[in-house]
Amino acid sequence: MRLALDPAQVVKGRALWGLLTHGLIHANLWHLLLNLYALYVSETTSRTSWKMSFRAHPRELGDRGRAAQTFAAPAVMVGISGGVSGLMGAYVALFRA
Predict the structure, then answer these.
(1) What single string gives the DSSP state of each residue in 3-37?
(2) Which terminus of the chain is less hemmed in, N or C, by CB atoms within 10 Å?
(3) Which domain, by its residues, includes 14?
(4) How far is CA 65 from CA 48, 52, 81, 82, in A?
(5) How many domains does the chain have?
(6) Cβ neighbours of residue 91 closer than 8 Å, sequence gap 6 or more
(7) Is the whole model's pTM more than 0.70, yes or no?
(8) Spatial contact of 66 and 82, defined as CB atoms under 8 Å apart
């Protein structure tokens, strides 16, 4: 996938566009639909349960997930699942009681 993020190429100074484009593409339709559903659930929950909005956080959480993945197990990455997982983890941490 040309638009995916390949950490090995980024370290060499090549394929830097992957830093911006990997969150816009997905591995398949199922991957895209699950991410969209998780974002819908998190947005609905934030509107009804929280006083502050977390609309900007999927990107920030995705950046942190991408960094962790790069250092832990470098692999080609697509999608914003890291950001979505971070949002869902935040909800679990806040509403676990």
Answers:
(1) TSB-HHHHHTT--TTHHHHGGG--SSHHHHHHHHH
(2) C
(3) 7-94
(4) 26, 22, 9, 5
(5) 1
(6) 42, 45
(7) no
(8) yes
